[in-house]
């Protein structure tokens, strides 16, 4: 988990700018409730009505979250933002960071109250590992980078401390009391065998809870999230920041499931019609709104053709600078005609030489590693056949020739221990979410 800290913080930059904010339109939806309280229809606020503009820092059970703490975390988030941040967006970014810091503080305090301490050596070791993963052979550049963007090594090390402390607390106080019986695992295996050949889906979900009074505001916020995701935002980052489901900590990943496990007919219908890579939402469901992302789909315990290992030859031509479009088109036509005359992979190098083309061989590439558009084409080829030409004048035009394919064996599915591990993780995660909610409910938090 900690190995991905910096990439998670950076990828969450856009997500943090979409924290839920009060929307005036929701007053209409709550009018009936207001009448019950005898509230006037025209309110005159005696102080600033926007709490986001009043709250800058917080004291959590006596621990002060300073302006500097927030500034340095915000700087780390904004470093990945490729667009200007408006004043209103900055307010929401800061509030999201403050909420994250409050949760982090509660987690560290909970661990300390149980005499679970994280040593400075552990933190430094993890920091060095993250630095090496992001900066290769020069991890010392991490310090300079963080300082250059207005953050600091201390800010990142504080988050590392929070994650290590929380993991250690769960490992000692929660995990030992999660018991998965042999019968539960065997029952899961039997269900999988009974479902052999049926469709299963790997879904990502962002769930936002709503009441009748907040429904309008939550739906509006969900639409903004979908808009940002369609513009290239990270689904994992948004799920971690905003999803209220127990899967938020794993980026909203529900894992491989069958649709009845969603326990909602509308979600089942929507998911059944989705294609891998598709995003749908917001979907109104009892208690709130759901945003679905289909990561992949397959047949239960059946071999996936995309796991086939291929032997490919890539035959490619390039174009000299200054080549006219007409001349390039003529060369592509000649290349296409020549490729069609290749008599199997053994003849590829000879014909390529005549065409002035390069040949690159790859004997260990899985179908799923190719772009999706090429996957469907490759799966229809016989050995010795090639794809249609693709590419551009700038990057070169190429074809892929299939020289061999090792089809996957029938999938055996996860073994007993893997299934037990999955069930344990799911149960631990749900208890962890309840644990954190309890910490929030019991905390003394003063806002400045």
TrEMBL record:
Gene3D superfamilies hit by this protein: 3.10.50.40, Porin chaperone SurA, peptide-binding domain
Signal peptide start-end: 1-27
Keyword Zinc-finger assigned: no
GO MF term list: peptidyl-prolyl cis-trans isomerase activity
SUPFAM superfamilies: FKBP-like, Triger factor/SurA peptide-binding domain-like
Keywords: Isomerase, Rotamase, Signal
Domain PpiC: 198-296
InterPro entries named among the record's database cross-references: OMP_Chaperone_SurA, PPIase_dom_sf, PPIase_PpiC, Trigger_fact/SurA_dom_sf
PANTHER family noted in UniProt: CHAPERONE SURA
Protein name: Parvulin-like PPIase
Organism field: Qipengyuania citrea
């Amino acid at each position: 988990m900690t190995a991905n800290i910096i990439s998670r913080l950076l990828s969450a930059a856009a997500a943090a700018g979409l924290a839920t904010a009060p929307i005036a339109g929701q007053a209409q939806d709550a009018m009936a409730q207001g009448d019950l309280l005898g509230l006037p229809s025209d309110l005159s606020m005696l102080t600033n009505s926007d709490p986001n503009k009043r709250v800058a820092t917080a004291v959590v059970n006596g621990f002060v979250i300073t302006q500097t703490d927030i500034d340095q975390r915000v700087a780390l988030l904004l470093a990945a933002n490729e667009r200007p941040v408006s004043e209103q967006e900055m307010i929401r970014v800061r509030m999201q960071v403050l909420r994250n810091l409050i949760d982090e503080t509660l987690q560290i305090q909970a661990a300390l109250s149980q005499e679970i301490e994280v040593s400075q050596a552990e933190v430094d070791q993890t920091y060095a590992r993250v630095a090496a993963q992001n900066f290769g052979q020069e991890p010392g550049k991490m310090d300079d980078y963080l300082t250059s963007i207005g953050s600091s090594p201390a800010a990142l090390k504080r988050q590392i401390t929070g994650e290590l402390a929380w993991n250690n607390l769960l490992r000692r106080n929660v995990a030992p009391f999660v018991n998965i019986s042999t019968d539960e695992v065997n029952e899961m295996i039997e269900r999988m065998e009974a479902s052999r050949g049926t469709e299963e889906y790997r879904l990502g979900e962002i769930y936002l809870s709503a009441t009748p009074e907040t429904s309008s505001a939550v739906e509006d916020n969900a639409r903004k999230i979908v808009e940002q995701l369609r513009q290239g935002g990270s689904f994992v980052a948004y799920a971690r920041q905003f999803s209220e489901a127990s899967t938020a900590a794993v980026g909203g990943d529900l894992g491989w499931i069958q649709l009845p496990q969603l326990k909602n007919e509308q979600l089942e219908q929507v998911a059944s019609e989705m294609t891998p890579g598709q995003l749908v939402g917001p979907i109104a469901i009892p208690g709130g709104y759901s945003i679905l992302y289909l990561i992949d789909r397959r047949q239960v315990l059946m071999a996936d053709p995309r796991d086939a290992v291929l032997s490919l030859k890539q035959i490619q031509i390039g174009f000299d600078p200054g080549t006219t479009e007409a001349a390039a088109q003529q060369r592509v036509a000649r290349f296409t005609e020549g490729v069609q005359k290749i008599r199997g992979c053994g003849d590829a190098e000879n014909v390529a030489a005549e065409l002035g083309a390069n040949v690159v061989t790859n004997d260990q590439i899985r179908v799923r590693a190719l772009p999706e558009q090429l996957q469907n084409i490759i799966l229809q080829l016989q050995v010795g056949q090639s794809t249609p030409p693709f590419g551009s004048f700038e990057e070169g035009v190429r074809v892929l020739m299939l020289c061999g394919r090792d089809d996957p064996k029938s999938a055996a599915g996860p073994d007993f221990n893997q299934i037990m591990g999955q069930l344990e993780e799911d149960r631990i995660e749900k208890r962890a979410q309840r644990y954190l909610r309890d910490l929030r409910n019991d905390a003394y938090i003063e806002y400045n």
